[in-house]
Amino acid sequence: MQWFHARHARAKPRYGQIMVGAMVALAMLSPGVAYADAGFDNASYQGCYDAQKAKESGASFSITKITEGTGYVNPSADCQLAANKAAGLRVGAYGYARPEYGNSPEAEADYFNAQSNAKGLVHAGVIPFLDWEPPASQRGDTQWAKRWLDRVASYWGTKPIIYMSASTISVGDWRAVAGADYGLWVAGYPRGYKGERLRDPGAPPYSVAPWPFAAAWQYSSSGHVPGVGTAVDVNWWYGDAGTWAKYANARVGTQPNPVSPAPTPAQGAPVGDTASIATAVIRGEYGNDPQRRVLLGNRYDEVMAVVNERLRGNSGGGGSGTYVVRPGDCLSAVFGGSWPMVARLNGISPPYVIHPGQRLATGHGGGGGRTVTVQRGDTLSGIAARLGIPQNRLNGYRSGNPSLIYVGEVLNY
């Protein structure tokens, strides 16, 4: 770098803050003993590098630049990510903010999400990061940063981490960002710009308040990382693979691209868990029939049963064109690239929180795109009678229980 959703029942949304905090505290008290390791971040000027040599020199992770603003993609990202994966490095991905260009945070976040998704990074054990180092006039715009973070969190189903210099912390009120459980990756170079290396730098010698701790520290931009370069950003992560997985909302040991890309017919059926392949099908990665049937091979019936269950209604769905939210779901994971349409159809607005048991109209086989807002004293049966429609046409109530609806909920039918 330059110097200066579901509200899950089975996982976060506070991404295991107590456990992560305890592990980080232990790492800061006893750096180098356990729960901490070294890595680097990279952008286009590193080009394609030898990540295996970096790993052999002590690197455990790499955080790769994906986008900048709304029109730039790191041209070396594909080979860098492939090298990191082959070497077994844990992977992070960052978008470089450009609020000074007049871009909205939502536009920049959507661009980052789309490019990251195209590279197989979303829901793959990868932590998203916001690189926040705009000009001084925008540096304190914490609302812009939080809106970007909120947008990315809703798409990835996990909380991004924000990167900034230690001096930037003091120029804005970051309490809302820290309070929303967006972690901090702080940058500061107490040894200046002379040669550095991958090492244990200890705890950051800066105040990071209002954050209780830093998740990571970029302690130099002039590190020598074999296989990568001699002027590389080097970082210390206050945690281990388990901590990384908690931030990424993933199982321990998850590697990027856990599901193989859509195969050619010669490669046979895809590997991976059925639910993940079904998500890829919904995103359009397997095309349409007859191509989809060929690409899915002997797993076609198995995968399409899950796809159809999601799009046409699952257990308790109550009719065609609905999906009942399960623990751990987020819109982007279930509906892929069509999640904004599903959100609009169901009256779901930022931060795009969904709840286990909530019934969502999918736009497939049911629902006319009409909505009704629950008023005080309303019941589901009463609303249906007033509208002159069957009760099971009403979707979107977050409790999943027809006898429990909330004032202000927007239902669709």
UniProtKB/TrEMBL annotation:
<feature type="domain" description="LysM">
    <location>
        <begin position="370"/>
        <end position="413"/>
    </location>
</feature>
<keyword id="KW-0732">Signal</keyword>
<dbReference type="Pfam" id="PF01183">
    <property type="entry name" value="Glyco_hydro_25"/>
</dbReference>
<keyword id="KW-0378">Hydrolase</keyword>
<dbReference type="InterPro" id="IPR018077">
    <property type="entry name" value="Glyco_hydro_fam25_subgr"/>
</dbReference>
<dbReference type="InterPro" id="IPR036779">
    <property type="entry name" value="LysM_dom_sf"/>
</dbReference>
<dbReference type="Pfam" id="PF01476">
    <property type="entry name" value="LysM"/>
</dbReference>
<keyword id="KW-0326">Glycosidase</keyword>
<dbReference type="InterPro" id="IPR013168">
    <property type="entry name" value="Cpl_7_lyso_C"/>
</dbReference>
<dbReference type="InterPro" id="IPR018392">
    <property type="entry name" value="LysM"/>
</dbReference>
<protein>
    <submittedName>
        <fullName>LysM peptidoglycan-binding domain-containing protein</fullName>
    </submittedName>
</protein>
<comment type="similarity">
    <text>Belongs to the glycosyl hydrolase 25 family.</text>
</comment>
<dbReference type="InterPro" id="IPR002053">
    <property type="entry name" value="Glyco_hydro_25"/>
</dbReference>
<feature type="signal peptide">
    <location>
        <begin position="1"/>
        <end position="36"/>
    </location>
</feature>
<dbReference type="Pfam" id="PF08230">
    <property type="entry name" value="CW_7"/>
</dbReference>
<dbReference type="InterPro" id="IPR017853">
    <property type="entry name" value="GH"/>
</dbReference>
